[in-house]
Amino acid sequence: ARAGYKGPLVGYERAFFPWFHSKFWSAFDRSSVLVRREDFLRAPLEDAKGVYVFLLSSVLADLAPMLRARLAPGTVVVSAEFAIAGWTPEQVLAARGVTSKEAKVFVYRV
Fold this sequence. Notes:
Layout: E1 9-12, H1 16-29, E2 33-36, E3 50-53, H2 57-70, E4 76-80, E5 91-96, E6 102-109
Parallel strand pairs: 1-2, 3-4
Antiparallel strand pairs: 4-6, 5-6
């Protein structure tokens, strides 16, 4: 959103505190991201142009087959700090991290 993307940006968070935190801060930075307190697995992903995840590698391993099945070819998948096993990233970027000072950001394309 901060990079200037104008399309609809929707986030999904099941846990209350991360959801509340994102809602609270979005009020201050005038974010165009809508964060819903819903299950990502039930989200309508078929028309998504991109998906961002911040999940442990073990969770990503379970999620990867669903992403391949439901996302259209060409959809960008960005994973912060954790690689998706069996997927080859198009890019690996460095950013300020949550779990470390510098984190890898993995960019994939379905």
